[in-house]
User: Which sequence fits this backbone?
């Protein structure tokens, strides 16, 4: 899996702070944007604590994602407040061997892993045979498995990213989309550390919200995913 933050709204924390100030200020935009970084940090923390997430919708982040499975991308596109451009299996003919995704659970079962690999190799050979016989790629693709790799570009605003991280960084999420979400969270924290200081599964912000479905490892999750203390706002 490869995850790259391609671009984001310039000075995202500065913009979010200015938008938050505007709601309660008689000042013009120029003066709101000129406020110092320390004040922006204080205001962003207050906004996040109060749940005033609408101001986060003004900034967006675009990612390139490669070598995730179709099983993962099907889960990803359920997050509808986002934009996706995905490699097409209709217009792209995969004539070379596909680097199919292998679930970690198979690594400890070598006999099943061998059967898994052979089955997918047979499927790919059938796919290539169909193409060679003149079957259109849009029809030959019907035999391709959920393990087939895909690549896409996606854009989410910061509010939707918070929601995405809350669900998909949780241990209850499927392993592949959780790995994707964690990689995206790390990239977002590098670009806008204060905006994403509290982003992640619900147990980072308090008791686990999953009730009877709690994984029982909240402290371990906090150790794994908690942001560094007191990140500065980016000016």
Assistant:
């Amino acid at each position: 899996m490869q995850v790259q933050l391609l671009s984001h709204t310039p000075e995202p924390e500065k913009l979010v702070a200015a938008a938050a100030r505007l709601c309660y200020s008689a000042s013009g935009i120029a003066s709101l944007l000129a406020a110092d970084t320390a004040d922006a940090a204080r205001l962003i923390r207050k906004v996040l604590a109060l749940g005033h997430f609408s101001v986060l919708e003004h900034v967006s982040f675009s990612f390139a994602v490669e070598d995730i499975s179709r099983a993962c991308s099907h889960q990803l596109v359920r997050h509808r407040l986002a934009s996706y451009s995905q490699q097409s299996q209709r217009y792209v003919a995969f004539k070379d061997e596909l680097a199919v995704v292998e679930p970690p659970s198979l690594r400890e079962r070598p006999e099943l892993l061998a059967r898994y690999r052979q089955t997918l190799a047979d499927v790919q050979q059938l796919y290539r045979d169909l193409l060679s016989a003149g079957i259109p790629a849009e029809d030959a693709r019907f035999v391709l498995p959920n393990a087939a790799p895909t690549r896409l570009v996606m854009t989410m605003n910061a509010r939707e990213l918070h929601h995405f991280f809350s669900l998909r960084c949780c241990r209850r999420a499927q392993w592949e989309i959780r790995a994707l979400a964690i990689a995206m969270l790390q990239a977002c924290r590098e670009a806008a550390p204060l905006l994403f200081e509290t982003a992640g599964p619900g147990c980072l912000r308090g008791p686990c919200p999953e009730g009877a479905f709690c994984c029982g490892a909240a402290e371990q999750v906090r150790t794994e995913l908690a942001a560094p203390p007191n990140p500065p706002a980016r000016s």
